[in-house]
Amino acid sequence: MKKIVVGNWKMNPSSLKEAENLFEKIVKLMPRLKNTEVVVCPPVLFIEELEEISKKIKIGAQNVSSEKEGSYTGEVSAKMLKNMRVKHVIVGHSERRKIGETDIDVNRKIKATLSSSLVPVLCIGEEVRDEDNKYFDFIKTQLRDSLENISKSDITKIIVAYEPVWAIGTGASAATATEFFEMGIFIKKVLSDKFGLKVVSKIRIIYGGSVDEKNAEEFIKIGKADGFLIGRASLNAEKFSKIIKTCEVSNR
Fold first, then answer.
1. Strand ranges (E), the chain
2. Which of 88, 93, 101, 248 is catalytic?
3. Is 93 a catalytic residue?
4. In the chain, how many H helices and how many E strands?
5. Among the options 37, 101, 126, 163, which is catalytic?
């Protein structure tokens, strides 16, 4: 199973020219890939232009509407993204949840994404790690509710991104590779109870939260990560390409 590296540019950069320059630099620095997929999720207004630059990198979206069409000002549907040749969609990012998005909303968005044959990157993660380990129950609830009524055939199309909220942002520290390894086992247990162990073996579980070129190797080797969801480091072509190389080399 190929590793996957997803770059989330968030609300950056501020112009199309900057976006094109960054994308072109990433393409230039990227190693030749056989075992790793690379996805970049720019602001939606840059998607079509970046699609024309190179096919080495797949283009994704940072969000999607749960509605098919209609009077939803400012929203972008899964069908629209499909027509823009988008392949992956980040769903349920903590920054979306922070402004009111619920697990029910996430579930509807996953279904909309799958209905247009797009790949959802489902983000889950706790705000704090309490001493009583109740954060495990929080993750279990996020998974259960976000994946309500998702079929066994569809669950294998979903990528699960564990991105603890406390590890995101300037000044934050990443989880340890051991902490991710432990959480990865727990996520697989929750999913296997719902979908079966055989099915879960086909689901990629990736890590996000202060990933950089220095800690990526540990998450692959010790944490057994199937890849990464990267924010800040994806805006630095050199750092992003080093992380991609780490994934490619580790999967040979």
1. 3-8, 36-41, 58-61, 88-91, 119-124, 159-162, 205-208, 227-230
2. 93
3. yes
4. 11, 8
5. 163
Half-sphere exposure of 24 toward its Cβ, with a 13 Å CA cutoff?
9
Domain 3-26+37-63+74-250 annotated CATH 3.20.20.70: yes
Q: Distance between alpha carbon 93 and the CA centroid of its chain, in Å?
A: 8
The answer to whether 79 and 69 have CB atoms below 8 angstroms apart is yes
Is residue 163 part of the annotated active site? The answer reads yes
What is this structure's pTM? 0.96
Terminal Cα distance for the chain, rounded: 11
Domain ranges of the chain: 3-26+37-63+74-250
* Structure confidence at residue 251 (pLDDT): 67
Cβ–Cβ under 8 Å, residues 54 and 26: no
The 10s digit of each residue's pLDDT in 23-50 is 999 999 999 999 999 999 999 999 999 9
Q: What is the pLDDT of residue 172?
A: 79
CA dist., res. 226 & res. 3, Å (int): 5
**Residue 193 CB neighbour total at 10 angstroms:** 13
